[in-house]
Amino acid sequence: MKRGKSRRLMGEMNVVPYIDVMLVLLIxxxxxxxxxxxxxxxxxxxxxAAPLDVSEMQENExxxxxxxxxxxxxxxxxxxxxxxxxDDNVLTTTxxxxxxxxxxxxxxxxxxxxxxxxxxxxxxLLQRAGATGIGILTDPIEPDPI
Length: 146
What we know:
Layout: H1 16-35, E1 46-47, E2 63-67, E3 73-75, H2 87-100, E4 106-110, H3 116-128, E5 135-136, E6 139-140
Helix pairs in contact: 2-3
């Protein structure tokens, strides 16, 4: 005697959760894209490098240390992103952000006319604050007109 109907396995894939994830990622990208354009205006060196993978930065705040042509430091997070900060403020603010979220992406954006030693010093400050995997922002090279 058989009890009830035998069940057949369903061979179709349920794509609804994948669509939900895709829509959430789309919203996150729409929110984070304008934030990548904030900060101090500096003339970045043009290099032929691959663009950043924004998907790695989607759930974290993005910390950018900018260095203008005079060698002044600016942090995009803090009380006033437009005001220069001294070395101690870079160290303490970055350390506090890294302690709160160790996965925070950290980028350095230096003007092309700034002394390389100042950029290296900024990198050292970020490392002392606990930042790992520091990226460098550049502008893409413009193609030569034919």
